[in-house]
Design goal:
Elements: E1 6-7, E2 26-30, H1 34-46, E3 50-55, H2 58-68, E4 72-76, H3 84-94, E5 102-106, H4 111-119, E6 124-127, E7 130-131, H5 132-180, H6 184-198, H7 202-216
Parallel strand pairs: 1-7, 2-3, 2-4, 4-5, 5-6
Helix pairs in contact: 2-3, 5-6, 5-7
């Protein structure tokens, strides 16, 4: 993309709250215009971020993401070989890694592009010319949103695992109650004792009981 796309501003070294307790956010730049990429790099580093690489087309952005595992990607939409939206879709849908927060930069405020970007897991959308006072808050908000999403996904995964464990344990208890003629409390006590003896999780013991029952029945 030609033309000045990063608006000038007073150079102020910005220190972010999360920098005080963790390493600077590692950002990958994807911009086909070399001059613009250099401008973004200077602004980001001046703001306290770490620019770990610069991709000059969408394919290179995908390759560098896989290689460098950035904490965030700032990516132009219109690039050679693969546009930013397709690159975002590939990165967060086909690389086998956790979702990486992406901010897209474009010269056009197009609602259709915004809808496409949202479907690719993009957490930010900036229209050129980009001012530093818009860029830094966008990065901070995308970073915060990404952390929240990761936390919620972890909670959902834990709840799913807990629900699965409960179902297995209940089924295993039912098998013991039926075949040993014991009540629910005794069946649970037997499973807990055997779990400690074998030093395995109660869920794994329950799965073994269910598996053995399936083979014998």
């Amino acid at each position: 993309m030609n033309g000045k796309t990063v608006a000038p501003n007073k150079k102020v070294k910005r220190q972010h709250a999360w920098h005080a307790t963790s390493a600077p956010l590692r950002i990958l730049l994807a911009e086909d215009d070399v001059a613009v990429a250099k401008g973004f790099k200077l602004i980001l580093e001046d703001a306290g971020y770490e620019v770990i690489g610069i991709a000059h087309d969408g394919v290179e952005a995908v390759e560098l993401t896989s290689e460098l595992n950035p904490g965030m990607i700032l990516m132009d939409i219109k690039m050679p070989r693969m546009d930013g939206i397709e690159a975002a879709r590939t990165i967060n849908g086909g690389l086998g890694n956790n979702s990486i927060p992406i901010i897209l930069v474009t010269a056009y405020a197009d609602q259709q592009l915004v809808r496409k970007a949202k479907s690719c897991g993009v957490l930010g959308y900036l229209v050129k010319p980009v001012h530093v006072d818009d860029l830094v808050p966008a990065i901070e908000m995308a970073h915060s949103a990404s952390q929240t999403i990761t936390t919620l996904e972890g909670m959902v995964e834990n709840l799913s695992e807990e629900l699965e464990a409960r179902k297995l344990i209940e089924k295993a208890k039912g098998i013991l109650m039926k075949h040993l003629g014991v009540d629910e409390e005794d069946a649970m006590r037997m499973m807990q004792k055997e779990s400690r003896r074998q030093r395995i999780k109660l869920k794994d013991l329950a799965r073994a009981i269910i598996s053995s029952h399936s083979v014998l029945s």
